[in-house]
Design goal:
The chain has two domains: 2-104 and 114-118 and 151-203 and 229-283, Beta Polymerase, domain 2; 300-463, Poly(a)-polymerase, middle domain (Orthogonal Bundle), CATH 1.10.1410.10. The chain is α+β, with helices and mostly antiparallel strands and 526 residues long. Helix content is 43%, strand content 13%. Strands 5-6-9-8-7 form a five-stranded mixed sheet, with helices on both faces.
Length: 526
C-alpha cells in the first residue's frame, strides 16, 4: 500500500521519534463489557480531538486512544476519580491507565455494531499450515506466513505505549530520560507475542552541548560519582524496578537481574499483556536494531525469508524460548542476511558497503568500535536480483546444509566466509563488536541437528511433487517443512542420521588424509 511505502522510507530514528511522541499522547482504558464504541468516542472527544483508536481483548475489553494534543490527557485526568479504598488501599500514582464502568448499565443499549478487536497474537502453527496449503506458490506461502506473524500497527502502538508508561516512572527521578524499545519490537523482524525489550536513555542531554560553549565559565552539574558505570546502572535499575513493583499499576512479577552481563529488570505489564525487559542504554544494541531495520526495509523478500526460516526452526526445536545451547533467533536472522549478501547479484549490501555510503552524521564510534553505516535508505541502490522466494528458500537449506562449519565463519561486514578465529562449532561475527561471536552458545549437537534438518528440508523441496500433493490434500512446499519430520515418515529420520554420520566421516577422512574414501566408508558400514 502507498501508506506503507511512505512509512518504509523514513530513517530508523525518524520512525522511533515519531512513535515515541505519539505514545506520549496515548491512554489505555479498560472498558465495561457492553461498551458502545460511538458513545465512548463521543465522550472522549469532549476532551480533545482523537487521532486514532482501537480495541483489543486481554482479560476484558481495552481501548487504546491516541489524542492529537497531549493536554487532552490532562483535561481527562482532571475528571477521573481515585478508586474507593474498600478492601484495598491504593498507591495514589496517577498514570494513563484508566478503568471506565457504566453509571447506568441497565439503561444502556448494547452497541448496534459489534466492536472489532485488533488481534494481539498470531494463529497456531496447525492453522497456519491449513492456510498455507491454499496458496499457489511457495513464495505466496511465505508472504502469507509473514502477514500472519508480523507485528501489526496496533501492536506496535501498544509496545511504544508500554515504554512511555515506564518513562513516566523514570522521569520522577530523571526528568529528561526516555524509555525506548529496541530489538524485535522495532527492527521489522518481531512477531506477534514477542517480549518488549526497552532501555532507559539519559543521553538526550547531549543535544544542548552547543549552547554550553557560550559564556566565560565552564559549568557542570554536581552529581553523585560512582566507581563504575555498571554500578550506576545497577543502582538506577534497582530503584526503578522497586518503583514499578511497589507503585506501577499492572506491573507484576518484577524480577531484578542485576548481576547479568547486561543488568536488567524483567516484569509483566498486565494492561498491555507484554512481558518486558528493561535495561539501561546500550548504544550497540540500538545500532543492531537499526541495521536489521535497514535490511528489512530494502527488499520484501528479506523479511519473508527470515520469518519462514524462524518458524521452521521453532517447529523442529532448533530454537527455544529458554536460553541454552540452541541457535538464537538473532543468529538465525544473521545467517539469512549473510546468505542474501552472497547471492549473485547480492540482495542486500554488506555492512562494509553500508559504511562506505555513510556521511558525517552517520559516523558513530561506540566503545572503540566503528558502528558507522548509512541511515538514509534512498542512498542504497535497490538490488538487480530477481530470484523468487521459492528458489531462495530451497537454496538457503542447500547452502547451509553443505556449509563447512568446521573451517569457516560467517562475517556480515565482508559478506564472505572467513576462517574461524576460534573453535566454537558455529562462529558468526558480531557485526559491530568485532571480537565477539554472537553464536558462542551453540554446541556441536545443536549445529549438527541444524545441518541435518537443512539437508532434509532441501531434499523435500527438491523431490516433492507439488501437484500430486495438492490433489491429495497433503501439505506441500513451506507447509510440508512445518510438520516435525519424525511424525510424517520414520524412514526420513534414518536419512537424517546418515547425514550426520557422513559429516563425522568427512572429518575423520580429513584428519587421516585418506586417499581411498571407499575403504573407510565400507569399514564404518555407512
Amino acid at each position: 500500500t502507498d501508506a506503507e511505502v511512505n512509512t518504509r522510507k523514513k530513517t530508523f530514528t525518524e520512525v522511533q521519534t515519531e512513535r515515541l511522541e505519539q505514545a506520549e499522547r496515548t491512554i489505555l482504558i479498560k472498558c465495561p463489557p457492553k461498551i458502545n464504541e460511538k458513545k465512548l468516542l463521543q465522550y472522549l472527544s469532549s476532551h480533545g480531538k482523537i487521532n486514532s483508536h482501537f480495541f483489543f481483548e486481554n482479560r476484558g475489553i481495552h481501548a487504546l486512544i491516541e489524542f492529537s494534543e497531549k493536554n487532552s490527557i490532562a483535561s481527562l485526568q482532571d475528571v477521573i476519580g481515585i478508586p474507593s479504598a474498600t478492601e484495598h488501599h491504593v498507591v495514589p500514582f496517577k498514570s494513563r491507565l484508566f478503568t471506565f464502568t457504566l453509571k447506568n448499565p441497565v439503561g444502556q443499549a448494547a452497541a448496534e455494531t459489534p466492536i472489532h478487536f485488533a488481534p494481539q497474537s498470531h494463529i497456531p502453527v496447525k492453522d497456519l499450515i491449513q492456510k498455507l496449503c491454499s496458496a499457489d506458490s511457495i513464495s505466496s506461502q511465505m508472504y502469507s506466513l509473514l502477514n500472519e506473524y508480523q507485528l501489526t500497527e496496533e501492536n506496535i502502538k501498544l509496545r511504544f505505549l508500554a515504554c512511555s508508561l515506564v518513562r513516566d516512572f523514570a522521569r520522577a527521578y530523571f526528568p529528561d530520560s526516555v524509555v525506548k524499545p529496541f530489538g524485535s519490537s522495532v527492527n521489522t523482524f518481531g512477531k506477534l507475542g514477542c517480549d518488549v525489550d526497552m532501555f532507559l536513555d539519559f543521553h538526550e542531554t547531549r543535544k544542548h552541548t552547543t549552547k554550553m560553549k557560550k559564556g566565560p565559565f565552564e559549568m557542570e552539574y554536581q552529581m553523585k560519582r560512582l566507581p563504575s558505570e555498571r554500578l550506576a546502572t545497577q543502582k538506577i535499575l534497582s530503584v526503578i524496578g522497586d518503583c514499578l513493583d511497589h507503585f506501577g499499576p499492572g506491573c507484576v512479577s518484577v524480577q531484578k537481574i542485576l548481576n547479568a552481563r547486561c543488568p536488567l529488570v524483567k516484569f509483566s505489564h498486565q494492561p498491555t499483556g507484554f512481558q518486558c525487559d528493561l535495561s539501561v542504554s546500550n548504544s550497540i544494541a540500538i545500532k543492531s536494531s537499526e541495521l536489521l531495520y535497514i535490511y528489512g526495509c530494502l527488499d520484501s523478500r528479506v523479511r519473508a525469508l527470515v520469518f519462514s526460516i524462524r518458524c521452521w526452526a521453532r517447529v523442529h526445536g532448533l530454537t527455544n524460548s529458554v536460553p541454552g545451547a540452541w541457535i538464537t533467533n538473532f543468529s538465525l536472522t544473521m545467517m539469512v542476511m549473510f546468505f542474501l549478501q552472497k547471492r549473485s547479484p547480492p540482495i542486500i549490501p554488506t555492512l562494509d558497503r553500508l559504511r562506505e555510503l555513510a556521511d558525517e552524521e552517520d559516523k558513530h564510534v561506540i566503545g572503540g568500535y566503528d558502528c558507522s553505516f548509512v541511515s538514509d535508505l534512498s542512498k542504497i541502490n535497490p538490488t538487480k536480483n530477481k530470484e523468487t522466494l521459492d528458489v531462495l528458500l530451497c537454496d538457503f537449506f542447500e547452502y547451509f546444509g553443505n556449509f563447512d562449519f568446521r573451517k569457516n565463519s560467517i562475517n556480515l561486514r565482508k559478506g564472505k566466509e572467513v576462517n574461524k578465529p576460534e573453535s566454537s562449532p558455529l562462529y558468526i561475527w558480531n557485526p559491530f563488536e568485532q571480537d565477539l561471536n554472537i553464536s558462542k552458545n551453540v554446541n556441536q549437537p545443536q549445529l549438527e541437528k541444524f545441518v541435518a534438518l537443512a539437508r532434509e528440508s532441501a531434499w523435500i523441496l527438491q523431490k516433492e511433487d507439488k501437484t500430486q500433493r495438492m490433489i491429495n490434500k497433503e501439505p506441500w512446499g513451506l507447509a510440508a517443512l512445518l510438520i516435525p519430520f519424525g511424525k510424517s515418515n520414520p524412514d526420513k529420520i534414518k536419512n537424517r542420521v546418515k547425514g550426520i554420520g557422513s559429516e563425522t566421516i568427512k572429518s575423520l577422512l580429513d584428519s587421516l588424509k585418506l586417499s581411498n574414501m571407499n575403504s573407510l566408508q565400507k569399514a564404518v558400514g555407512k
